[in-house]
Design a protein that fits this description.
3 helices; single chain; 37% helix
Length: 120
């Protein structure tokens, strides 16, 4: 698959970045948003719907933070999974999605329950 260095889009798709945003910040946010949007589109294509249960997103920064925002706005019940204790705290005024520490999850027990038909 070839990757182009530039892509031509129609004029209505572009948006001006705020003056306070650097080109690097705009590129980073744009890349994370595009990556998150592609993943969410594929999830929908595979049949996942907002009423289908909780959706786990790894991390609360970068692509993860953008995915959390998009999923929440689409009506999904989102939980973030992080390995960093400090990321469990949510700053004042921010939306409070569920945040779980990766260390607190027991994936082997969950897999065993599912294999024996005793999934929750």
């Amino acid at each position: 698959m070839a990757v182009r260095g530039a892509r031509r889009v129609t004029g209505g798709l572009g948006r001006a970045a705020p003056e306070s945003m650097t080109a690097f910040d705009a590129m980073t946010l744009g890349t994370a948003g595009f990556t998150a949007a592609l993943a969410i589109h594929q999830m929908g294509h595979n049949g996942l719907k907002p009423d289908g249960g909780r959706v786990a997103v790894k991390g609360r920064r970068g692509v993860g933070s953008v995915a959390i925002e998009i999923l929440a706005k689409l009506g999904y019940d989102v939980v973030a999974i992080t390995g960093k204790e400090k990321e469990r705290r949510v700053p004042e005024g921010h939306r409070r999605e569920g945040v779980l520490l990766r260390q607190s999850l027991d994936f082997r027990a969950t897999a065993a329950r599912q294999a024996t038909g005793r999934a929750r």
